[in-house]
Amino acid sequence: MIRTLIADDEPMVRAGVRAVLATDPGIEVVAEAGDGHGAVELALRHRPDVAVLDIRMPGLDGIRAAAEIRRAAPATGVVVLTTFGEDDYILQALGGGAAGFLVKSGDPEELIAGVRAVADGAAYLSPKVAARVVAYLASTGAGDRAARRGTARERVAALTPRERDVLSLVATGLSNGQIARRLHVVEGTVKAHVSSVLSRLGVDNRAAAAVVAHEAGIVPPPDHP
């Protein structure tokens, strides 16, 4: 059972998220909060597997709440809910420890998929969010893009060939178990590689690693032994 916390300052949104999650018998909502401070407090009290946070909340927003939750309850994965026009918030949230990014107006099935992916240790960006992040990065100046691309490639160059394989699959949103099956190794080996990749890249979570992979042009390895 995936124990989940919901935090949004709009009761109707919380009700909608709760209703969607209730359609999956493997997900249980254990607590709800109307602001970021409440989300952090309830996360420490209930230790949920996943916290679903609105990116904009009074007092403590979803970005800072995500960072606090990841610091105080590192076993809790964070999914952030966004609306259109908040691309800069999404990029900030990458550094705050969030592993899932969903658009409120997206397909309800994406919410369930995102919660399940994050609970399984994977990163999850809904297609709409991924497209917006890529477009946002592409909209910056050519010099900025070149600098980011060069920096990303330098960071990736420090990885071993196997770590680069793992990074490319992390960037596609696969969980450790899925990567293990893809690369024909045990899950514990993948977990060790992921930890090493995050450390070598200097990032705190899989979503941030995925951004580095995309900027460096890393692609998944062929699906064969």
Automatic annotation (TrEMBL):
Write down what this protein is called: DNA-binding response regulator
SMART domains found in the cross-reference section: HTH_LUXR, REC
Q: Which residues form the signal peptide?
A: none
What residue stretches are annotated with the Response regulatory domain?
Answer: 3-119
Supply the InterPro entries for this chain: CheY-like_superfamily, NreC/VraR/RcsB-like_REC, Sig_transdc_resp-reg_C-effctor, Sig_transdc_resp-reg_receiver, Tscrpt_reg_LuxR_C, WalR-like
Outline the extent of the HTH luxR-type domain: 152-217
4-aspartylphosphate occurs at D54
Instruction: Return one Gene Ontology term, BP aspect.
Output: phosphorelay signal transduction system
Give UniProt keywords alphabetically.
DNA-binding, Phosphoprotein, Transcription, Transcription regulation
Q: Sorted alphabetically, which PANTHER family does this protein's record hold?
A: TRANSCRIPTIONAL REGULATORY PROTEIN NARL-RELATED (PTHR43214:SF24), TWO-COMPONENT RESPONSE REGULATOR (PTHR43214)
DNA-binding listed as a keyword = yes
Q: Which Gene3D superfamilies match?
A: 3.40.50.2300
Give the species this sequence originates from.
Streptomyces roseolilacinus
An annotated Gene Ontology molecular function: DNA binding
- Asked if Phosphoprotein is a keyword of the record, the answer is yes
